[in-house]
Amino acid sequence: MITKQRIEFIRERIAAFTPARIQEFSTLLMILSKANISPSEFHLYATGIKQGILNVSSERQQLWLRIAPTCPACGSLFNLKPIRIKQGNANKFGYKSQWYCVDDNCAYEEFSTKPYTELFKNQERLYNISRRPLNGQPEEDSFTTEGGK
After folding, report:
1. pLDDT digits over 43-87, tens only?
2. What is d(CA 59, CA 129) in angstroms, rounded to the nearest whole number?
């Protein structure tokens, strides 16, 4: 049984979504659950689609899994994404990137005023990994599979 407090917590987190979107998400969760696909796996898949890198995502994911930090709160994969909102009312501190945990049960996140490309490159340097072209195509500086601190 779900408590009233938990219902309110969930309602606050999904307030930006329409009832139709929430129903779509509910259906998606049921499909993923029946197929034994974890939210983290789906996130990596969806990120690949969003970045247009799905065809080479496994190689990039392998790179990211070697250099990605873990969430300080729960130990799951820690991802990185850019913040495209300029400093102002919606972004008072001028944050340019966000670290976040991919585990749906953990809401840990950190913000940085450094661009995510710089943070990604710093993560590569920590592990002495340099990017090489994938499938003969040079990497773009804006590449990220999300993640890493």
Report:
1. 877 776 555 444 445 666 677 777 888 889 988 888 888 898 888
2. 14
Task: Spell out a b/e string for 46-66, using b for 16 or more CB atoms within 10 Å of the CB, else e.
Answer: ebbeebebeeebeebbebbee
Confidence at residue 76, expressed as pLDDT on a 0 to 100 scale: 86
Domain count, the chain: 1
Residue 101 lies in a domain: yes
Where in the sequence is the domain holding 131, given as residue range(s)?
57-149
77 in helix, strand or coil? strand
Q: Cα dihedral sign for 95, 90, 70, 66?
A: negative
**pTM exceeding the 0.70 threshold for the entire prediction:** no
Q: 129 near 63, Cβ under 8 Å? A: yes
Nearest to 104 by CA among 41, 31, 16: 41
